[in-house]
Design a protein that fits this description.
The complex is a heterodimer of chains A (about 400) and B (about 475).
Chain A (H helix, E strand, L loop, with lengths): L3 H24 L5 E2 L4 E2 L8 H5 L2 H12 L4 H14 L4 E2 L2 E3 L5 E3 L6 H16 L5 E7 L2 H4 L13 H11 L4 E5 H5 L19 H15 L10 E9 L2 H6 L7 E7 L3 E7 L4 E3 L24 E8 L1 H5 L6 E8 L3 H8 L3 E7 L8 H7 L4 E7 H7 L8
Parallel strand pairs in A: 6-7, 6-15, 13-14, 13-15
Antiparallel strand pairs in A: 1-2, 3-4, 4-5, 8-9, 10-11, 10-12, 12-14
Chain B lengths: L5 H17 L5 H16 L4 H20 L4 H36 L14 H16 L9 H9 L1 H4 L7 H9 L5 H33 L8 H32 L17 H7 L2 H12 L9 H18 L4 H26 L3 H20 L3 H12 L10 H22 L4 H8 L1 H24 L11
Helix pairs in contact in B: 1-2, 2-6, 3-4, 3-5, 3-6, 4-5, 6-8, 9-10, 9-17, 9-19, 10-15, 10-16, 10-17, 12-13, 13-14, 14-15, 15-16, 18-19
The chains are: A alpha/beta (about 400), B mainly alpha (about 475).
Pfam family, one (chain B): MBOAT
Family (chain B): Belongs to the membrane-bound acyltransferase family.
Subcellular location (chain B): Cell membrane
Chain lengths: ~400, ~475
């Protein structure tokens, strides 16, 4: 009930909250980029008759208020907290699983489009009969830890998807099913995936690498040939960002070093070089997975040479040149691959503007690896730049 | 602009309140009109001309009706002219494409659709204009002499976009002179916050469940899931719409206006007749006042009354949207209301309460299926799923259990809010000072929570793309 005394409280409470937010909105410094969401924010408003009439001003102003909202990220947390308080086990499409695992469910692919896509991959690779080609499909965490999903939650079977794609693949293309490579190890204490991110851990990538090497008839390095070091124990990745759940645990990022090879990385995107497969500066940022290869690039060439230690151990490169067409799952994988390949070209077709066919003609390689996680492969279908 | 947006909440509203209360009383109508026009123009700058033109026309019609008190024939022409113009405007913008589409289907012609965007609030403000003109004609109200006051009546931003349909007589006096009090202002705030919470916390969240269920293939739905879906929609539309009305009424109070109530816990109804006395009351009374009664209402025999019910409900249906399913929806209720009038109500009165409520809820839910699917094929598909008539129907599946486990708390809250049971302990607590303070705290917490959900709606992580 509202009486004369509480009426004042309502008046001051309400106008105080909205008034204060207005003042803060105007007074607080404007952000132009959200590291948290990894996107540009609306930070400017231009007023003109044109923008008023075509309603773009209204739209931009609404985005502006939302994007520059005072203490924006704290409000996300409050919402996520309220969702969790009402026993919601999914927020922004991310499932809160057991044992601090977060998951993203896979939807049923539109098979007609996937089949067309696989056909065009077959055709493209058919033009390069001299190149030995392999498709490695990696599962995402939801496929391997289904028992950790919230009760009754469902995800489309990635095994079914992978097998269906494999069946349609041209005989020329070898297939490695990442599910078979990783599944036997899911009960191990060592995690194959980050719990807060959509990527596999270095250990998960190692298992897939071992399976791939066996497919090529090359002996993979054994685990005890690597020195494993923890480079971060504060990693909270994309699932954490999207899901915003409280009470999650940070992940550990490990790095595997054999000491046999020294890598030189050339990044064509901005014509720069790195003398390591790892970028330490990324560990201080939000998305620490970018530590591997320094994040996403359209085109990289990696040149590997044997170190003294490698020479002493009698280590040798089995493959001279290779092209990896990939999504970001390759980033944790390539350090292992580098143990066996002298020159690796890495193309991410989602960002590469040129034609893959053209690139392959200009840069003949011995070996081709297509490395994707299953949801990205079926959903983005970007491999050939068909949309361009 | 909509109330449940950040730009309304932290820019438009505080700025307008500041201007409104810092200027002298006689200037407040000017501030309110300007504010309302900005509010309207935000979504559709072009149609502001239509709004002003129609307002001005009806203003002059009203004055002319006032002057020619002696000549009855002239007055008839004036009222008919104004009503026809309003209906023509509404008909053109809302139904032209629907008529064209049906003509094309019927005659095999290929007239091109106009594809005009619907002017916001046109269904509401044309009805308000008509109520004014007809009431002036009936001499129930005095014609408004001030263009400004009349323009404020038509364009008043709280009710401009989605009602309630305020009949002129309700606020005629307040247009000229309003009482302001701190308690009324505070009541407005509380009402607005409750409405905002209904929309943002309840309707939007249960809407996500309906969205998920309705986007699935209907032949994949378990029977329980189909029912869960339409229940979710029933909650969504009620809390969305009544929340909007609450916000409108609350804002009205904050600016010194008192509108009539628009909803009265409709899901507590024990019959469809009662449901329609509790649901969108302002629309029901408009049709009663300006269609049903002029047609003779119930005073010219049963046959005429049934005809009138049929007309009113066909119109009520089509008012909700230019599509056949809305006509069907109106006819569906016309049929039920007729049956209730003939014998069902008497029959129901002899049943236990629980049966009466189940009857009403069941028919309301089936009604929502007709309402929500514009595509008749989808509608019948959904009915098929609800009745378990598809090929391999199951009662309950894992997916339904998963949704239930996620939404169980929200569903419980929705039931409580929709039925609003009264506990005398709680009522007594509410009037105590502690109760008043707790109630204030709850309102403020709800406001903050609503802001959090609204800010989160902009949360849009691009995890893979940066270009």
């Amino acid at each position: 009930m509202i009486n004369k005394k509480t009426a004042k409280l309502y008046k001051f409470g309400f106008t105080g909250i909205i008034g204060l937010l207005l003042v803060l909105l105007l007074a607080m410094p404007k952000a132009s980029f959200s590291y948290f969401e990894n996107r540009q924010l609306q930070s400017k408003l231009e007023l003109s008759w044109q923008s008023l009439l075509d309603k773009s001003f209204a739209e931009n102003a609404e985005n502006y208020v939302a994007d520059q909202f005072p203490w924006r990220e704290h409000w996300f947390g409050l919402k996520a907290f309220a969702e969790q308080a009402r026993f919601m086990t999914v927020n922004n499409g991310i499932y809160l699983g057991k044992e601090h695992f977060l998951f993203e469910a896979m939807k049923e692919p539109s098979w007609g489009e996937v089949e067309q896509y696989v056909d065009s991959i077959n055709q493209l690779i058919g033009k390069f009969p001299a190149v030995h080609s392999t498709l490695l499909l990696a599962p995402t965490s939801v496929e391997l830890y289904p028992q950790l999903l919230p009760k009754y939650a469902d995800s489309y079977s990635q095994r079914e998807a992978a097998e269906r794609i494999a069946a349609q693949l041209a005989a020329q293309i070898a297939f490695v099913n990442g599910i078979d490579a990783l599944q036997p190890y899911t009960s191990e204490h060592k995690l194959l995936y980050y719990r807060n991110d959509h990527h596999w851990s270095s250990y998960g990538a190692y298992l897939a690498y071992a399976a791939y090497m066996e497919k090529l008839g090359i002996a993979p390095l054994s685990l005890d040939e690597f020195e494993i070091s923890v480079v971060s124990s504060s990693y909270r990745g994309s699932y954490h960002t999207k899901g915003q759940f409280i009470g999650t645990e940070a992940d550990v990022i490990e790095r595997y070093d054999s000491g046999y090879v020294q890598s030189h990385v050339y990044i064509a995107d901005h014509n720069s070089t790195m003398d390591s497969l790892y970028d330490d500066s990324r560990l201080t940022q939000k998305d620490q997975y970018n530590y591997f290869l320094g994040g996403v690039h359209a085109l990289m060439t990696i040149t590997n040479e044997l170190t003294d230690k490698g020479k002493e151990a009698g280590h040798q490169f089995e493959i001279d040149s290779m092209l990896v067409v990939k999504d970001s799952y390759a980033h944790a994988f390539i350090p292992f691959l580098s143990q066996h390949v002298r020159e690796i070209h890495v193309v991410d077709p989602r960002y590469y503007n040129g034609s893959l066919e053209q690139y392959m003609k200009e840069h003949p390689v011995q070996e081709l690896l297509l490395l994707y996680n299953i949801p990205t492969f079926v959903e983005e279908r970007s491999l050939l730049g068909l949309k361009r | 602009m909509v109330f449940s947006s950040l730009i309304f909440l932290i820019i438009f509203l505080p700025v307008l309140l500041l201007l409104y209360y810092s200027c002298p009383t006689r200037w407040r109508n000017v501030v309110l009109l300007c504010g309302s026009l900005v509010f309207y123009a935000w979504g559709e700058p072009v149609y502001i001309a239509l709004l002003l033109l129609s307002t001005t026309a009806d203003y002059f019609f009203g004055r002319a009706l006032g002057k020619r008190q002696s000549n009855e024939r002239h007055r008839k022409w004036l009222v008919a002219g104004s009503v026809l113009i309003n209906l023509a405007v509404l008909g053109f913008f809302k139904y032209a494409d629907f008529i064209i589409e049906n003509l094309n289907a019927l005659l095999g012609s290929s007239i091109e659709a106009l594809e005009l965007p619907l002017p916001i609030g046109i269904s509401f403000y044309t009805f308000q204009s008509i109520s004014y003109i007809v009431d002036v004609y009936r001499k129930k109200v005095e014609p408004q002499q001030s263009w400004l006051s009349f323009a404020v009546y038509i364009s008043l931003f709280p009710q401009l976009v989605a009602g309630p349909i305020v009949q002129y007589g309700t606020i005629a006096a307040q247009l000229g002179k309003r009482m302001f009090s701190e308690v009324q202002f505070a009541e407005g705030i509380a009402r607005f916050i409750r409405g905002l919470a209904k929309k943002v916390l309840l309707a939007n969240n249960i809407g996500l469940l309906w969205e998920q269920i309705s986007s699935q293939q209907t032949d994949q739905l378990a029977i329980a899931m189909a029912w869960l879906g339409i229940i979710a929609f029933a909650f969504q539309i009620y809390f969305d719409f009544s929340g909007y009305s609450d916000m409108a009424i609350g804002l009205g109070l904050m600016f010194g206006f008192r509108f009539n109530e628009n909803f009265n816990l409709p899901y507590r109804a024990a019959s469809i007749t009662e449901f329609w006395r509790r649901w969108h009351i302002s629309l029901g009374s408009w049709f009663k006042e300006y269609v049903y009664i002029p047609l003779g209402g119930n005073r010219q025999g049963l046959l005429k009354q049934l005809r009138n019910i049929l007309i009113v409900w066909t119109l009520t249906g089509i008012w909700h949207g230019a599509s056949w399913n809305f006509v069907l929806w109106g006819l569906y209720f016309a049929l039920i209301l007729t049956l209730e009038k003939l014998f069902m109500l008497k029959l129901l009165a002899r049943c236990p309460r629980i049966l009466q409520h189940s009857y009403a809820i069941l028919l309301i839910l089936l009604g929502w299926v007709i309402f929500v699917f514009e595509d008749l094929q989808q509608m019948s598909g959904y009915f098929t799923a609800m009745l378990g008539l598809q090929h391999h129907a199951v009662w309950l599946d894992e997916a339904t259990l998963y949704q239930l486990s996620n939404y169980i708390v929200l569903l419980a809250i929705l039931v409580v809010c929709a039925v609003a049971p009264r506990f005398s302990v709680l009522e007594r607590f509410k009037i105590s000072m502690t109760g008043a303070l707790v109630s204030w705290g709850v309102h403020m917490a709800l406001l903050l929570l609503c802001i959090a959900y609204l800010v989160d709606a902009s949360f849009n992580p691009f995890l893979y793309f940066r270009f």
